[in-house]
Sequence to fold (964 residues):
Amino acid sequence: MSGNDAATLSVSKRYKKQSALGEIWHRLKRNKGAVMGLVIFFIFVIIALYSSFFVDYNTQVTAIDPSNAYKPPSSEHFFGTDNMGRDLFYRVLYGTRYSLVIGLFSVGFALVVGIILGSIAGFYGGRTEDIIMRASDILASIPGLLLGMCIVTVLGTNLFNLVFAVGVHSIPEFIRVTRGSVLLVRNQEFVESATAIGYGSLKTLFTQVVPNGLSPIIVTYTCRIGSAIIEAASLSFLGFGVPVPTPEWGALISDGRNYLRMAPFLTYFPGIFIMIAVLAFNILGDGLRDALDPKLKR
Amino acid sequence: MAEETTIDRVDDSEEFLLEVKNLTVHYVLETERVEAVNDISFSLKKGRTIGLVGETGAGKTTAALSILNLVPGPLGVIESGEIVLSGNNVLKLSPKQLEKIRGKDVSMIFQDPMTSLNPVMTVGDQIAESVKLHEKVNNAAAYRRAMEMLELVGIPGMRASEYPHQFSGGMKQRVVIAIALACNPKLLIADEPTTALDVTIQAQVLDMIGQLKEKFGTAIVMITHDLGVVAEICDEVAVMYAGKIVESGTLDDVFNHTTHPYTEGLFYSIPKINNKKASLVPIPGLMPDPTKLPKGCAFAPRCAYAFEECSADKLSLRKINQTHSVLCRAYDNPDFHLNLKEGHNNA
Amino acid sequence: MLRYVLRRILWLIPVIICVSFIIYTLLSLAPGTIVDKMITDSTTQAELQEIMAKYDLDKPMVYRYAKYMWGLLQGDLGTSQITGSSVWQSFIARLPNTLWLALASLVIGVGLSLPLGILAAKYSSTIWDNLTTGFTLIGMSMPSFWLGLLLLRWFSLDFKIFPAGGNAGLKSFVLPAITSGLMLMAMVTRQTRSAMLEVLHSDYLRTARAKGVPEKSVIRVHALGNAWIPIITTIGNVLSRTLAGQAIVESVFSWPGIGRLTIEAVEQRDVTLACGCVILTSIIYVLLLLLVDIMYAVVDPRIRAQYQGTKKSKKAVMA
Fold:
């Protein structure tokens, strides 16, 4: 009997979700900024995929050719060449994947941890909530860049550690946002009815509460990616990023700054790419915010 | 058409404190145009009270905001018309001149007291602000005046240093009234001042407005959908429907010699305490979409007396007597009369 | 209110304990120690033992942390393991540089962003608004170190208007201040715009206009007065981030502030100095957020009333 009810519930939910998704897509499409952000995002994905298949890492990205150093941008080398004679265009293109991976996965990591801890805090309340929220407060009070530096120092410079180092810092925000929306959703009727038909509390939490409080989380996710890319680039810039010849954008700028006087283009191009990538995620996040909930603030 | 609809008063127009002539206000949206107020005219003498009555969306608030030239731009556009307030055409004044008139010659009480007060300013400061703007007094004197105003509306002057969130809804509305009356305006526009309040508080607030009106001789434009309120404090009534004034006259004209079918419908929709057996007769249908108003009478689709020509042709205002006029073509037929049910005017 | 502030300051104690534990452990676990840079090929085993013993490196990490904490509880942040100078002294010596920079960026950022945001909100959906929005979006998307390098290249190398680095007089101040101020400005402008947009349609502005308040005061007094909360939140957040991220700007402009001190300490595995810097920066960070909370109460009587209420406000502590 209760199974029957549960089926009805899930069917009606799925129906509601589909139409809601369509509605969101419709609203997103009307937002010029969001569409542009989405287009840029896909272009970057294509560049990342393309550079994996068509640019040879060993010969085109990292091979050293000192006779060819400091060539200004030309039709042969679109972005010029660096101090080792490496083609900056290929290096920047190849670097796309790092920023994308770091952006998507570091915040994704924070999202997963944050959703789990945040929804537990919001759903169970009491002492559990206190402990989680205090721990989150403490984590939030360590300046992100410094924490990232320490983490990379311990774990060593590689892509995975950089993702982790940047992600940790975003966890408190997701805990806060998730807890907020869980608190908001928790007392609504469909949650009560799920409990009434005998859903366990964990099942209720992850089938009813989390999906319905998702909008602010999605928005936070998208908006966070931009700053994560910047943070990762900053860490790389300071030398706490990826190991040396890896063409991560922040690292490229870090290399280029030594030649700011004679070859400023080494600094210009990677920076422009960082800016465009971050801009794309920021405007996409703005558009999503408007599409998901016009009343949602901050 | 303009000439036809102007109410031809016999009195010397110099006496009028407020004259609204052929006012038309539209809200211009991206794809459509909301005809909020369509060619309305009315006037008000010193110290008198006129009730603007109608359903939600009839254009009452827009008409009222026009008197202050406060129709929210850039969407709201005053298309045409003239609003003369103590000899000045409000619609032609510069922003500076408007600021001088607002709060001093004319002030307004808004519908929702909960949101009408600035939450981060003490109520005393909010009242004193108005005084300081319009009278040459120093801060202390303005504040003293604010406290007096609070006392006047029945709030201890001590509470002037408190913030709006420390007051109840009825108290907030009293504060709003105190702000409006702080500079002793000649004209007060009250936009549904009691709608958001509890019934008991409604009576208190109305009572107070009535008293203040007598004390200061303030003329009032009372906007309401509540005929009871009109009966209590108004001298004149203008019934609005879909942006037009469909019937206007003295309280006696409109209440006891009702001529417009819509006004009649309004009376039928009120429960009567002394005749509980009489069932309510709601007006069938809804107000027309203000973006697609018919050429002729907007009420025709809902009107029991309507005939074919009603929706087709433009209407012109018909005078029943010197004070009473109606916008209904049924009166082209001299024998026409509403089949008023007995006791409708006991509302 | 006072009780609330006291509680928030007491809250610093667990923060300091946890932060010091996290950072100390992390840096101690990191491969390599300060000793690495002191030994040469000729260093004998005995000498090495001696150096290790000097820094307690021959003992377990727990011992070192306990010793460090014991000092910390007595208010002693220890001495730098490399220079031997007091951590507190080194930090305090560098702090003014960072604070001045933060203050300058605050003045630049807030001074420009408030009018910009207000105008954009007031004339929303006009070219002016779109320009402002575009500017803030670009400002937010630009990595500060990149912006710093661009400014260096143009104003220091090309036009030679400002020095390229160091702290030598007011002129050396300009580029770093602009670099960190621009980010702040972009974020605050954006928040000011959206906060004002929200407030601009409120009924109480209509009330204010209806009583004849000049438009200028309507915007400045009534609208801005109610838009402060989100604006202050953003200023606080961005400022604390600027302060912590100052390391980047300081590194670009060779600015002798606490950010660079921290980076150098981490790079050299100077655990005491690095740990002390992070703890002190975290304290500034927490105090800044407390300041933001106090500002809320200053600008909004409703929040003030909440603090003054007898009811313990658990939510406020969490915020």
